[in-house]
Amino acid sequence: MDFSILRNLISRYCAGEEYWVDNRTVYIGHKEPPLGADAYIPQRYPDNRIVSSKYTLWNFIPKNLFEQFRRIANFYFLLIFLVQLIIDTPTSPITSGLPLFFVITVTAIKQGYEDWLRHKADCSINECPVDVVKEGTVVRTQSHKLRVGDVVMAREDETFPCDLILLSSSRDDGTCYVTTTSLDGESSHKTYYAVPDTMVFKTEQEVDSLHATIECEQPQPDLYKPLGAENLLLRGATLKNTEHIYAVAIYTGMDTKMTLNYQSKSQKRSAVEKSMNAFLIVYLCILISKAVINTVLKYAWQWSADHDQPWYNHRTEIDRERHVIRAFTDFLAFMVLFNYIIPVSMYVTVEMQKFLGSYFIAWDKDMYDDELGEGAQVNTSDLNEELGQVEYVFTDKTGTLTENNMEFIECCVDGLVYIPHAICNGQILSAASNRESVCLSVRVCVCVCVCLTVCVSQEHEELFFRALCLCHTVQVKEEETVDSIKRGIHQGKPTSFYISSSPDEVALVEGMKRFELLHVLNFDSVRRRMSVIVKSREYLLFCKGADSSIFPRVVSGKMGQVRARVEQNALEGLRTLCVAYRSLSLAEYEEACHQLSEAKLALQDREQRLAQAYDLIERDFTLLGATAVEDRLQEKAADTIESLHKAGMKVWVLTGDKMETAAATCYASKLFRRSTQILELTKKRTEEQSLHDVLFDLSRTVLRQRSLSRYAAHSHQCIFLEICRNCSAVLCCRMAPLQKAQVGLIKASKEHPITLAIGDGANDVSMILEAHVGIGIMGKEGRQAARNSDYAIPKFKHLKKMLLVHGHIYYIRIAELVQYFFYKNVCFIFPQFLYQFFCGFSQQPLYDTAYLTLYNISFTSLPILLYSLIEKHISIETLKSDPTLYRDVAKNSLLRWPVFLYWTCLGLFDACIFFFGAYFLFDNTTFSSNGQMFGNWTFGTLVFTVLVFTVTLKLALDTHHWTWINHFVIWGSLLFYVIFSLLWGGIIWPFLNYQRMYYVFMQMLSSGPAWLGIILLIMVSLLPDVVKKVLCRTLWPTATHLAQVGPQLDHSSGNTTAPIDPVLTNTVNCPLLSSDITTSCHRLAECPASCDSSAEFQIDP
């Protein structure tokens, strides 16, 4: 939803339609225009205060309560609590109100603390110091006090407090250099230019004497308005390599473009949470069924002639006439009596488990990177268990699989290849003195390119290196800190290094002669090229860019030889750039200047007009040559991808590179194998053959022995999706950032697989936000991906432990937590249901009010919480060394309906043992030495005691990793129950109106048969689960069971896990996504075992 439209409508309504204008006039320095100029119309703008918090001191309670009671379980317990207050119910309102109050309070404290952190962050931003020019002097003020029209002085390494228009700079040419890491994730330096009319104002007095206005649009999310990208300094960007600048504020506070462009994260729900809600609905139906059955049976029993109420409790005529209302109130009373089957405390326990468990990821030393000085970060704790359910991994290539550290390899000039040799202090380090070389001068070290064949014409050679020297945005920097990493320090001493808007340029540029730089046509992802216009003896236009954007615009040059070399470099995994030039006459140059000036100053459709101007200028090129740089694979990237494959995950690589370069990287990272067949879907192939026929040919290859008739009526997209779903690896090339977000196609398929996206740059943010789990790499392209992700890791290799270890263990823990909560609540409430058959359906509770209230809060809560935090069913080393164990927990295997039914049936069985075992022990039996019979509260206490010990010992049987903390909590919780029962029944509490439990627990413990009955019932209750575990491990062991026994056992013996199928690799360029796609597929079970082929899909946008 576009909130800017809603904001504008509200502003129009509040201000009045007659006062609304589409443009705003900014008066620099708040100076009114001189007499005779346009009328001065003051406008009210928001201050520079930033608000990212959700609550205030006044609305926290009502707003937080509203949000919490939107959760079905909380709202349900609120209704039950109100029913207990309104009508006569068998239990006290405290039994429902106290657990609900505990859950609401804990959640409110957690959310309040998180919002307090947001308030604290807002205050630190709003109160940061800012220098403002007033009356010819620089005055320091706070950021939130800035107003539209204030002239701000920003110094080097300072962050811009609001959206500014650059007036002048300390540099003579009126330029400044800015990093936009917090905006688009790019840590490279960008060049901005002062307004030509104001760039001569160099001092505070001169700037303060300026009388001018700025006409601009009202706040819009577009980042490149109002005066063009080269003038607008956005809030959050940082000034670099410039002493100071003067700029005027045009958008402040919540009107800044960074705020308007903020894309809030959609609420991601894990598969476990969805299973919890489904199970909750089942138990709610069970609850309603119990209440209906008891209500019907109560009135059937009462209306029976032989079993009516006693004579002193006969119903009056009024009661007989109101039987419908009475039946409804009885139904509500039974709902209250059985409502504890809904585990409201489960939600707060799950929240605490996720919140506390996320710290183990952040504390993992194996995911700490010494180079960055940082470890893994958890931005959301709601998806810990989702890391153990990933089926598809979508990854970026550059900076994620590779290091994003470019090294110059070679260049090709007119088809002739040059390789570099290092020169330091004028000495050539390799024998090249007998060959003609071209020296590119640098401050410290210089690269020399030596011709491998014969010399080319001096003119083209010189023009080629001039293009490399001039067509760039490289600057020299002494020392700098980028994202807490110091650069430009060598052996403790500051040295020079290069900074640029592109890492390729740093690897290419070496130095230049002095030329007059006239215009820069900046690079963009649509054109995929950049150009400069320079003047020496003549006007020259130099251009460099991707081969797909340069070759169509070339009219002369040795295109065949250069294209062949480019393709060869791409096959070797090198990144290539093509270089071309064009001579401009004076008339052509003046026409180009006119077109660029008109486009840059346009207030409407500026982007389209600039694109048209660039298109007219960048044409009729002469091809000079091409360059090749290498981006090496990250450490252990291949091992990580191989482990993910063994774990059953399908890896897709989404990149903007050309298919040949990306495919070489995929082979190096073991995503593809040399022995596999390649299937291609390319634009060239779709031109030769219809898309429909191509897709069906591919589907026959990938989906052998499957009927293709069912796809006949489907769209091309469905067929293509079916092909890709049956592939274990896919490579998508030439993809734009928005195309990467189309991972939702896989999410929407009928299997609804869990997807994970990982990337390091701002162009990966949409993909990261779209996937079920988003992981950001703390790479060299800034931290935008890391900030917008659910988790952030330093290197791609850390993904292996994140998924195979943390994801696996967290899923095991929370699955046990959820199933255990439902199990222990069935054990808790089903005896209450059975008890109604023996008390005339009178709604008599079986347990005391204190037991009803504290069962889920105190007696059984801590052991399962600790289990869900520290349980390790398999050692970490085993999980890392055997990725196939990940398959045992895939597809939400521990929360499927059969497993849920087993836990529920186990709870019903145990509940029957508790109730009927105690019943038969009580039947015609005298427990006390004086012959006194035990009462109903003693019976309920006996059942409750067996219940608490059984469910706690059940958890102890499921525990594999024992520590002193486990012993303390498990045995301590049982001891706490005994001590509480002794105190609760052994002391007369003055604040209680009645004390029905007085001396009950001690009287029960004084009886030998009670002790024998408790021990016997506990053993009988635990026996079926023990037998089931023994049979499963003996007859049908899984890989997990075998790994728990020990590494000496052969995993293949008795293992029912399906063997890994042969690999089918496919590469396709698909017009449906307007991108190059390469896939690598696992052959399905019905495919012949001898089939080993692959396919490649490719499309140019």
From TrEMBL:
Report the residue ranges that make up the P-type ATPase N-terminal domain in this protein.
42-96
Task: Please give the PROSITE patterns that the UniProt record associates with this protein.
Answer: ATPASE_E1_E2 (PS00154)
- Keyword set for this entry? ATP-binding, Magnesium, Membrane, Metal-binding, Nucleotide-binding, Translocase, Transmembrane, Transmembrane helix
Q: What are the record's GO terms for cellular component? A: endoplasmic reticulum; plasma membrane; recycling endosome
Residues the record lists as binding ATP:
396-398, 505, 523, 544, 575, 655-657, 734, 740, 763-764
Listed under catalytic activity are: ATP + H2O + phospholipidSide 1 = ADP + phosphate + phospholipidSide 2
Q: What name has this protein been given in UniProt?
A: Phospholipid-transporting ATPase
Enzyme active site: 396
Please tell me whether the keyword Lyase is annotated for this protein: no
Residue ranges occupied by any P-type ATPase A domain in the UniProt entry: 129-257
- Kindly list the positions annotated as binding Mg(2+): 396, 398, 760, 764
Q: Which Pfam families match?
A: Cation_ATPase, E1-E2_ATPase, PhoLip_ATPase_C, PhoLip_ATPase_N
Membrane-topology descriptor = Multi-pass membrane protein
Q: Which organism is it from?
A: Oncorhynchus kisutch (Coho salmon)
Lineage, opening ranks: Eukaryota, Metazoa, Chordata, Craniata, Vertebrata
Similarity-based family: Belongs to the cation transport ATPase (P-type) (TC 3.A.3) family. Type IV subfamily.
Alphabetical list of InterPro entries matching this protein: ATPase_P-typ_cyto_dom_N, ATPase_P-typ_P_site, ATPase_P-typ_TM_dom_sf, ATPase_P-typ_transduc_dom_A_sf, ATPase_P-type_domA, HAD-like_sf, HAD_sf, P-type_ATPase_IV
Q: Where in the cell is it found?
A: Endomembrane system; Membrane
- Recorded superkingdom: Eukaryota
